[in-house]
Design a protein that fits this description.
The structure is a homodimer. With about 350 residues, chain A is α/β, with parallel strands linked by helices. Chain A has two domains: about 150 residues, NAD(P)-binding Rossmann-like Domain (Rossmann fold); about 160 residues, Dihydrodipicolinate Reductase, domain 2 (2-Layer Sandwich), CATH 3.30.360.10.
């Protein structure tokens, strides 16, 4: 079925939902040219129809009825941008069951249900993509799943969480204590009111699970990843690192060892010449070590409405291009099944 | 047509050809799993059947008869790894005409004939991919063509030539004059006996043409790119830069301006905090500025048999995966046609 208009439903209209809407509408001309079809947002699922929204969000697209999205034959792609485990996972399953391709930015949900969702998608001949779930705009899932796919990945090291990198950078460069920097980050919207998920390394562990599934074809649950957050990092630690011309960063690491994959998230001393040491503030970066390509380093914005929206829209565009050409089922799954 | 074995012909058995052969054979298990089919080299085109080859190259694969490759129905993909303009361009055209998908690492040929070859491929429903032609193992063409495709690209800046970056780095760090470093680079195999193509910026201009076609959808001939090489860079220039905590790098730049794309290759002062300034020796890097994703920085090995072979094999793998799934014609063309 070659189509001229590809319909999209966005689940959620928070930061990522509204950012994705903006990318899809402001860049609609570019996207249509590349996809070979118009890509139109047909519905945006929200919990509260009466809540104030960004001025750019058309009210008539809002709905609180998910079943209407499932039943709408004009909707080809469902983009899950709600976050959290439920109802996000159930909604993705139902969307696949209803024959919709699925894009998601939800690392927590995918780190727990990505393998099952990938199998469901494969069984239905549908695509499941989630570039935005790992490091926002940085095309790391794409690189691992396609351009570097002919390599055995030997190691992945990354700064996968912008909030903690911002805090550590400010502590280091402003000689400020953890608590003061955290409060400043919360005031600026870089850290949540309850920062546990970021500062204890849970968010980075979720992303590392997804990188491991894509790069090594193994599933390691986020809870099974050795994990230490940044709450124990003191100004004194940072001064000691600076004296050695090093930085302290929250580094997520997965390495192939003889008996399997070793995975951990923890604060590490990085010497000045390590590519990850120069990644400042809220930026993310990933170093992918390959048996043929050697080390590939990717850096960019790991969060924010537009960078994350860019990644969601990129996934939507690729699926739309396949639908437009009548070549669905083509994509290499991002989650490498054994 | 779903196939269980995908046949590949390599045109050329030099550095890139033998590197590609090694990637395809040593990583054959990984590639088969990802592609969903075995990928087998069925023939390697060489000029001289009697020349000594890498020990790993099976003699029975060598042929000097291109028409036998065209006529072989077991060959699905032709990888052009010969370099130079002719017969490379004619061979790619003939391969497409014979219904073979084409992969190439040949920046000079693609910078001149990429648009025509892309049209030929499109008309035949075939894929033309050339990740390896720009910055070897760095997945930059892939990032621009797919993950970042929903963006308007506003600028591209890169260190696209490893030889000149090696020379400038050694001049800077060893306080050595151009001529001595060039000779050392030639002795080590990092520079060719006639270094003109590298040191005068022609190689970087070829790659910039390919980045512009992918990122901006415009064709600017390499000869129309403002170009200055590194032969005029003196030790004194580097000392002055160092005094300002800056580096001198051969930078290829393409920026979107009101009246079109402005493109140039020239030595530039880069302050210490510019991401390109820390790219040392033979490494390549590209900074892609996007209207939604902001800046994405990619760094890695831009040359060498295995890194380049990794990129060629990645392209072959993606095409093989499409053939195996019976979903050819799916790929977004790397060269963005207007």
């Amino acid at each position: 079925m070659n189509k001229k208009t590809i319909g999209v439903a966005l689940l959620g209209c928070g930061n990522v939902g509204s950012g994705t809407f903006r990318v899809l509408t402001e860049n609609a001309g570019i996207i249509a040219k590349r996809a070979g079809a118009d890509v139109r947002v047909k519905a945006i699922l929200v919990r509260d129809l009466c809540k104030d929204r960004d001025a750019g969000i058309p009210k008539d697209l809002l709905t609180d009825d998910f079943s209407a999205i499932l039943d709408n034959p004009e909707i080809d792609i469902v983009a899950e941008l709600m976050g959290g485990l439920e109802p996000a996972v159930s909604y993705m399953k139902q969307a696949l069951q209803a024959g919709k391709h699925v894009v998601s930015a939800n690392k927590a949900a995918l780190a727990r249900s990505g393998e099952e969702l990938t199998k469901n998608a494969g069984a239905q001949g549908l695509m499941l993509r989630y570039e935005a779930a790992v490091c926002g705009a940085i095309p790391v899932m794409n690189a691992i799943s396609t351009a570097l796919a002919a390599n055995e990945i030997t190691g992945i090291r990354g700064i996968l969480n912008g909030t903690t990198n911002y805090i550590l950078t400010r502590m280091d460069e402003d000689n400020a204590p953890y608590a003061a920097v955290l409060k400043d980050a919360q005031d600026k919207g870089f850290a949540e009111a309850d920062p546990t998920g970021d500062v204890e390394g849970h968010d980075a562990a979720n992303k590392l699970t997804l990188l491991i599934a894509a790069g090594f074809g193994r599933y390691i649950r986020p809870d099974d990843i050795e994990r230490e957050g940044i709450t124990g990092v003191t100004e004194d630690d940072l001064r000691k690192a600076a004296a050695e011309n090093a930085k302290i960063k929250l580094v997520a690491t997965a390495v192939r060892e003889k008996d399997g994959i070793r995975a951990r998230v923890r604060p590490e001393f990085l010497p000045a010449d390590h590519p990850l040491s120069s990644v400042r503030n809220e930026f993310n970066a990933v170093l992918i070590s390959c048996n043929m390509a050697d080390d590939i380093f990717l850096q960019g914005r790991g969060a924010g409405p537009l960078p994350t929206g860019s990644a969601v829209a990129g996934d939507i565009l690729e699926i739309a291009a396949c639908i437009a050409r009548g070549t669905e089922k083509n994509a290499l799954p991002t989650w490498r099944l054994q």
